[in-house]
Amino acid sequence: GVKKGGTRAVLEFIRVHPEVRALGTEPHFFDRNYHRGLEWYRSLMPRTLDSQITVEKTPSYFVTKEAPRRIFNMSRDTKLIVVVRNPVTRAISDYTQTLSKKPDIPTFEGLTFRNRSLGLVDTSWNAIRIGMYAVHLQSWLQYFPLSQIHFVSGEKLITDPAGEMGKVQDFLGIKRVITDKHFYFNKTKGFPCLKKSESSGLPRCLGKSKGRTHVQIDPEVIEQLRDFYRPYNIKFYETVGQDFRWE
Questions:
Q1: Active site residue 189
Q2: Where does 3'-phosphoadenylyl sulfate bind (predicted)?
Q3: What DSSP string runs through 166-235?
Q4: Residue burial 165-190, b: 16+ Cβ < 10 Å; e: rest
Q5: Which of 34, 116, 134, 185 has CA 20 to 30 A from 123's CA?
């Protein structure tokens, strides 16, 4: 999935399923740690039964050129789950996260445009580039058929977590165990939370770094970004056969 799209939520929700075991941390094997070799990667994985599915999540894989080939070389049968979210909101969320760590970075507007009066968006800025989903998807389709890739809507994950997780379970070929009984809506965070987590019987909400209040952005900038992303979004909808309604 993409950074700030809802990948942590999908991982925490799916690992409640008895047939799924998940690695909690992001291993970054197919981008940063590939040189460590497959045995190193395997050694990180949770112990599983033959009937169980092992899941890991590292959002940067989706935008890493080498990742599709490397994953294909490991196993061409790998099932891929991609969580996507409105690219404009995603960029603001990404910037908000960076700002919390580096308060002295330039403004969002300053980083977004190469030339604002001409409306020239700086596609070399990572926060912008990640949201060009149609571009990144092409690298994956060179190795994997669409039938092996499932797209989760980051928006629906908040408004209908059980529905989105139902589709994920169908895609993985496992019984729909995770249903609306598993969720409650936390008004403070503005996110659904699990009534019971995998490891303890206690309710589980995502950590403090989730659900941050976004930086206020000039509506005109948002409008320009919407225009910029529109052709990429349309191409993405057409490629995957799914309309995410980000307009």
A1: no
A2: 4-8, 85, 93, 210-214
A3: HHHHHHHT------GGGEEEETTTTEEEESS-SSSSS-B---TTSSPPPPP--HHHHHHHHHHHHHHHHH
A4: bbebbebbebeeebeeebbeeeeeee
A5: 34
Binding site for 3'-phosphoadenylyl sulfate, residues? 4-8, 85, 93, 210-214
**2 part of a folded domain:** no
Q: Which of 4, 65, 79, 101 is catalytic?
A: 4
| CATH of residue 11 | 3.40.50.300
Q: What is the pTM of this model?
A: 0.92
- Quote the number of domains for the chain: 1
Indicate whether 65 belongs to any domain.
yes
Domain assignment of residue 204, yes or no: yes
Condensed to tens digits (0 to 9), the pLDDT of residues 210-240 reads 656 788 999 999 999 999 999 999 999 999 9
pLDDT at position 135, please?
Answer: 98
Q: Which residues sit in the known binding site?
A: 4-8, 85, 93, 210-214
Are the C-beta atoms of 151 and 239 separated by less than 8 Å? no
Dihedral of CA 114/119/124/126: which sign? positive
DSSP 8-state assignment for residue 88:
H
